[in-house]
Each structure stands twice: as structure tokens, then as C-alpha cells.
Design brief:
Number of domains: 2
CATH architecture of the largest domain: Sandwich
Largest sheet: 4 strands, antiparallel
Helix content: 40-55%
Distance between the termini: 39 Å
Oligomer: single chain
Mean pLDDT: 84
CATH topology of the largest domain: Jelly Rolls
Strand content: 15-25%
Number of strands: 11
Radius of gyration: 19 Å
Number of helices: 8
Structural class: alpha+beta
Order of helices and strands: HHEEEEEEEEHHHEHHEEH
CATH class of the largest domain: Mainly Beta
CATH superfamily of the largest domain: Jelly Rolls
């Protein structure tokens, strides 16, 4: 049991809290498991809680009225998602789908208010999450404004690396659950274009691995984007 609660300490929402304080919070939260491919929430559903991803990988997507699908974000262990339920509109405008088997903690508005009353640090952690999320979104929007397909893919890979990897590593193994189709849905490209670009970037030494094993060289991507006049947003 102690190990379980110590793992929960890595959740950024509870950063700065003790093991016992984190254990107290987690013991009162509802936890739910999902299998790969299962929807955690869908468009139009009532939005009643936010989610903390305890284990696994989740993609948050939006489908336009004409059926065009876009992946808005990919969440990994300890990420928060579904926080827009705190706004004026209490229904989901997107959907969240498990990319692997996963477990989530569910935090309703009353739960969050109670936690913040008891542990004010959680309020600052949540605001920091919202600011960082907004910052990542702006950086990704900046990348998607590029009309050049290669720059859009490189910008998206750099976005994923910054979000999912520690900053002191030069290379990063992308989770194989993130497919080339997922990358296409994130960049607004088709899958064949993404596949061709990945093969070319592997030949250029910017990417490594083979098949679904994709190794991202962050330094090489930054240098290539800079050389092409891409204003990197750190």
C-alpha cells in the first residue's frame, strides 16, 4: 500500500504534499480502469469531473461536423485532462480514448473544492497545469501554422517530446501506442505523407528506430527547424 501512495506523489496536481496527505486524497477519489480503445468520455456527454491519469496513455480528440478528426493532445501517466468541465458549458466538446489499458482518478467539482480548501497548494498546482497546458497549445498552434508538411510533423514531434520526456535527454523513444495515423491526426496530414516523411527523416538521421519504434533526436529537430526559419517556442 505504501508503494501505491508513493507513486501517487509523482502526480503534479499533488506536488508539495506529503506521502500521508497524498494518501488521504487518493483514498477518497473514485478510480476507474479502461481497456485499450475504450472511450473515457465522448462528445456531448455531461462533464462532471476532471481526470488524473494514473496509468497508461490517452488521446483527446475532436471531430468536426464534417467528420474531420483531430487529436488535440496525448496524455501520459500523471497528466490531467477533461478540466474544461469547470467552465460555463457542462458538456464535452471532445472525446478521450484509451490508447493503452489505463487507470484514472476522477475528481468532481465538489471533490476539487474540498481538496483545495484543505491543501491550498493544490490550487497553485492546478493553475500551473492550466498555464503550462495553454503554453503547449500555443506552441503547437505555432507549429501547425506552417504550410510545409515536414515542419508541421517536426513541430508536432518536438511538442510530444517536450511534453512526455525529460529535458536533459537528447533522444526520446516515442510510445509505440502513438501510431503514424495518430501523428497524421495531430498534424492535419494523411498517413502516407507522415510515413514518407518519417522514412526520409530516418535517412537524414533526425529520427531513428524502425517500424513502430520511433526514436526522436530533439537536438537535430531543433536545429533543422531553426535552419528552416521556424521560430522555436521554448
Amino acid at each position: 500500500m505504501a508503494t501505491f501512495f508513493q507513486e501517487g506523489m509523482r502526480i503534479s496536481l499533488f506536488e508539495g504534499l506529503s506521502v500521508d496527505e497524498t494518501a488521504s486524497i487518493l483514498s477518497k477519489l473514485r478510480k476507474k480502469d479502461f481497456i485499450s480503445g475504450q472511450f473515457i468520455f465522448s462528445t456531448g456527454q455531461d462533464a462532471t469531473c476532471l481526470f488524473v491519469l494514473k496509468r497508461g496513455l490517452v488521446k483527446v480528440s475532436y471531430i468536426s461536423p464534417d467528420g474531420d478528426k483531430k487529436i488535440l493532445d496525448v496524455c501520459e501517466e500523471n497528466d490531467i485532462f477533461g478540466e474544461l468541465f469547470l467552465g460555463d458549458y457542462r458538456f464535452r466538446i471532445g472525446m478521450a480514448q484509451a490508447m493503452t489499458d489505463c487507470s484514472v482518478y476522477m475528481i468532481g467539482e465538489h471533490d476539487l473544492f474540498t481538496i483545495i480548501q484543505r491543501f491550498p497548494q493544490v490550487s497553485m498546482n492546478f493553475m500551473r497545469h492550466l498555464v503550462n497546458s495553454h503554453r503547449r497549445t500555443m506552441a503547437r498552434m505555432h507549429a501547425l501554422q506552417r504550410t510545409d508538411a515536414k515542419s508541421r510533423l517536426l513541430g508536432t514531434l518536438l511538442y510530444l517530446t517536450r511534453h512526455m520526456c525529460c529535458s536533459n535527454e537528447q533522444t526520446f523513444h516515442l510510445n509505440p501506442a502513438i501510431t503514424q495515423q495518430d501523428l497524421a491526426d495531430m498534424t492535419g496530414l494523411n498517413r502516407s505523407t507522415v510515413s514518407s516523411l518519417i522514412n526520409k527523416l530516418r535517412q537524414d538521421g533526425v529520427l531513428g528506430g524502425s517500424g513502430r519504434d520511433l526514436i526522436i533526436n530533439k537536438i537535430a529537430i531543433k536545429d533543422m527547424l531553426w535552419d528552416e526559419g521556424f521560430e522555436l517556442l521554448e
